[in-house]
Design a protein that fits this description.
The protein is α+β, with helices and mostly antiparallel strands. Helices cover 43% and strands 19% of the residues. The chain is globular and about 105 Å long. Helix 8 links the parallel strand 16 (281-285) and strand 17 (307-310). Strands 1, 2, 14, 15, 18 and 19 form a six-stranded antiparallel sheet that branches. The protein has a six-stranded mixed sheet with strand order 11-12-13-16-17-24, sandwiched between helices. The protein has a four-stranded antiparallel sheet with strand order 7-6-8-9, with no helix packed on it.
C-alpha cells in the first residue's frame, strides 16, 4: 500500500480528531452505529433479491453519509486520490489541456505551453470525439483522466472535430509528466510594476513567487508589485502562509484556524524576515478567488500591507484535513474554520443549515485602525467592475459567441500573421455569423416577448374552447325546449339564443384583440432586434478587443495572450494607477500610522 502523509488543504493536521476529548457517550454511539451498519450491510449484500456489488453499495452508503455535510468533505478511492498528489506536488502525467462541455461535447478550452497538446497541433475549440477506440460523447471532463493518466511515453490517438473540416482529425499524442506552473506569468509592466499571476497554491508556489521577486529586483526597475489572485481557487494553507510571510513583519499573525475543540485551535505566524516588507503592493481578487487566496488577501488587508482591488471574493472559510484510509483511499474532512488577523471569518455558506449565514455585519479593525467588515468574503478596498465591458458584449461572452466564431474563423487557417489585427473584413464576417446563427433572436428580451405571445395564445385559445363547450350544452338544452310545449320555455329559449349571440360577438372581439396585441408585441420584438444590431456598431471597439484575443488563443502561447491583454485589463490598470498615486497611502491609512508614531 502506498504510504501517504496527512496533507493539509487549508487545514492543520488533526490526528484522530474524532477521539480527542470524546465522552463515553460518543464512544457508545460510534460503536452502536458500527454494529447496526455492519449487520445491515451484510444482510443487504447477501439477501437482496438481485445481486449487488458490495463495493458499489459501500460507495453509495458513503455518499449518503457525507451528503448531509458540506461539499468539501468527500471520500476518494485509489484512482481519485491521485488528485491530491497533483495538488500537493503540482506534477502529474497527462497531455497539458483543459476540457469543458460545450454544446454537449468535450471541448478544449485551454492548452498549456510546451506540452503534448500544444506540440501535437491541438487547438482551443477542438471537440474530442474519440480517444483510441472509445467515443467520448457521454463523458464528463474529469473522466478523461482514465485515458490520459498513463505512464509517460505511452501514445494516445485523439479523434477531434474542428469546424469547417469535413472529417474528424486524427492526432497522436504522447503522455508526458506535466509540471503545473503556479506562477503562469511574471514581468515588469508599465515600466516599474512587477506583475505576478498566481494560479494555485501547491508546495512550489512560494518558491515560484520568490524567483519572480528576485528577477524583478535584478532588473533595477521595480517600484511596486501586483499579485493577481483572480480565479485562483486555493490549495495548500502552508503555501498561502509562506507567500504572505514574504511581505509582512516577522512574528505577525497570518491566519487562525478554529475547530470544535479549542485545544487544537492554531495560530499561523510569520517566522522569517520578509523579502519585500515595504514596496507598494496591490492584490487583485474576484468572486473566483477562494480559500488560500482569501487567506493571503485577508492577511495583507488586515495588516495594511497591500491594497485589495477587484470584486468580493468567493467566501470559503472552511479548512479540510486529509486522512488515509485502507486500500489507498482518502477522506477529506472539514475540520475547522479560518479567521483573518483582525478576527474575521469569511465563510459564506452555513452548510449545517444549507443556506447563507444570516447574521448582522460585524465590524473589525485593521492594524492601522481601518474598518473592515465580516461580509462572507473579502471585500476589496477598491471595487472594479469591467468598465469596458458593456451588457451587450457581456452577453456575447456568456453565450460563448466569441469562442464559437473563433473556432469557425480559424478552422481553415494554419497560422496567423505576426501582426494580426481585427479589420473591417473580420468584423463583417462576425456580424454575418451573428445573423446566420440568429443570435439576436436568442437574446433574453427577445425570447421574453415570445413567451408573452405564447401566453396570450393560450389564454384566448382556452376561451374559444370554453365557447364550443357552452354551445354544445346550449344545443342540448334547446332540444329539450323544443320538445316542451310550454310557451314560457320558448321565451327562455329565445332569451338564451340572444345571450349566446352576444357571447359569440364578445369572443370574436377577443380574438381580434389577441391579434392586435400580438401585432404590437411583434413590432416591439422587431424594434428590440434592430436595436441589438445597432449596439454592434456602438460597441465595435470593445468587440474588436475580445474578438482579437479569442482568435489569438488558437495560435499564441498562454504567456503571449496574458501580455497582450494587460493594457486593456481594468483591474491591472486601476491597481497600477493607485500604486503610483497618493490614493495608495490614503487607502491604507499609512499617513495616520506615521502620525501616531511621531
Amino acid at each position: 500500500m502506498k504510504k501517504r502523509n496527512i496533507l493539509i488543504i487549508l487545514t492543520l493536521p488533526l490526528i484522530a480528531l474524532l477521539f480527542i476529548g470524546a465522552t463515553n457517550d460518543i464512544y457508545y454511539k460510534i460503536n452502536k452505529s458500527f454494529d447496526i451498519f455492519g449487520e445491515m450491510f451484510k444482510e443487504v449484500s447477501s439477501q437482496y433479491v438481485e445481486e449487488v456489488d458490495p463495493e458499489d453499495l459501500m460507495k453509495d452508503a458513503i455518499d449518503g453519509m457525507l451528503g448531509n455535510l458540506d461539499p468539501y468533505t468527500v471520500y476518494m478511492d485509489a484512482n481519485e486520490s491521485d488528485e491530491i498528489d497533483v495538488l500537493t506536488n503540482g506534477v502529474y502525467n497527462g497531455l497539458g489541456l483543459t476540457l469543458s462541455v460545450k454544446d454537449g461535447m468535450l471541448t478544449i478550452t485551454e492548452i498549456m505551453d510546451g506540452y503534448p497538446a500544444q506540440k501535437s497541433g491541438l487547438r482551443i475549440g477542438d471537440r474530442i470525439f474519440k480517444i483510441d477506440t472509445t467515443e467520448t460523447l457521454s463523458l464528463e471532463p474529469f473522466e478523461i483522466r482514465k485515458f490520459t493518466n498513463k505512464p509517460a511515453g505511452q501514445q494516445l490517438d485523439f479523434w477531434v472535430i474542428r469546424d469547417a473540416n469535413p472529417d474528424t482529425l486524427n492526432i497522436k499524442l504522447t503522455v508526458e509528466e506535466i509540471n503545473l506552473k503556479n506562477v503562469t506569468f511574471n514581468d515588469i509592466i508599465f515600466d516599474s510594476v512587477g506583475y505576478i499571476k498566481l494560479e494555485r497554491f501547491t508546495k512550489n508556489s512560494a518558491g515560484e513567487v520568490i524567483e519572480s521577486l528576485k528577477r524583478f529586483k535584478q532588473s533595477g526597475k521595480l517600484k511596486a508589485i501586483i499579485l493577481d489572485l483572480r480565479d485562483n481557487p486555493g490549495g495548500l494553507l502552508e503555501s498561502a502562509v509562506r507567500i504572505t510571510e514574504l511581505f509582512i513583519p516577522k512574528n505577525s499573525i497570518i491566519v487562525t484556524t478554529k475547530t470544535r475543540k479549542k485545544t487544537v485551535d492554531r495560530e499561523y505566524k510569520s517566522y522569517n524576515e520578509p523579502l519585500e516588507p515595504d514596496i507598494p503592493m496591490a492584490v487583485l481578487i474576484n468572486n473566483g478567488s477562494a480559500s488560500a487566496s482569501e487567506i493571503l488577501a485577508g492577511a495583507l488587508q488586515d495588516l495594511d500591507r497591500a491594497i485589495i482591488v477587484g470584486e468580493k471574493s468567493y467566501g470559503k472559510g472552511l479548512v479540510q484535513s486529509i486522512f488515509s484510509l485502507p486500500y489507498d483511499g482518502l477522506i477529506k474532512i472539514t475540520t475547522s474554520k479560518y479567521y483573518t488577523p483582525s478576527g474575521r471569518c469569511i465563510q459564506k455558506i452555513n452548510y449545517s443549515k444549507k443556506k447563507e449565514e444570516a447574521h448582522d455585519t460585524i465590524t473589525f479593525y485593521t492594524k492601522n485602525g481601518r474598518k473592515v467588515q465580516e461580509l462572507n468574503g473579502i471585500m476589496p478596498d477598491t471595487n472594479v467592475v469591467n468598465k469596458s465591458q458593456s451588457p451587450f458584449v457581456r452577453q456575447l461572452i456568456v453565450n460563448d459567441v466569441f469562442f464559437k466564431f473563433a473556432n469557425t474563423f480559424t478552422s481553415r487557417l494554419k497560422s496567423l500573421p505576426e501582426n494580426f489585427e481585427i479589420n473591417n473584413n473580420v468584423l463583417r464576417q462576425f456580424k454575418e455569423y451573428l445573423d446566420e446563427q440568429k443570435y439576436y433572436e436568442t437574446t433574453t428580451l427577445y425570447l421574453r416577448i415570445d413567451e408573452i405571445m405564447e401566453k396570450i395564445d393560450g389564454y384566448f385559445n382556452s376561451s374559444f374552447d370554453e365557447l364550443i363547450l357552452r354551445r354544445a350544452q346550449d344545443d342540448r338544452r334547446a332540444q329539450d325546449d323544443r320538445r316542451a310545449q310550454d310557451d314560457s320555455k320558448s321565451d327562455k329559449l329565445i332569451l338564451r339564443r340572444a345571450q349566446d349571440d352576444r357571447r359569440a360577438q364578445d369572443d370574436s372581439k377577443s380574438e381580434k384583440i389577441s391579434d392586435g396585441i400580438k401585432g404590437k408585441l411583434k413590432k416591439i420584438q422587431n424594434d428590440i432586434l434592430n436595436e441589438e444590431k445597432r449596439l454592434f456598431d456602438k460597441h465595435k471597439d470593445e468587440i474588436t478587443k475580445y474578438l482579437k484575443i479569442e482568435i489569438l488563443k488558437r495560435f499564441r502561447t498562454q504567456k503571449e495572450i496574458i501580455k497582450i491583454s494587460i493594457d486593456d485589463d481594468d483591474y491591472i490598470t486601476t491597481a497600477a494607477n493607485m500604486l503610483k498615486s497618493k490614493a495608495y497611502r490614503k487607502t491604507l491609512a499609512l499617513d495616520i500610522k506615521e502620525e501616531k508614531k511621531n
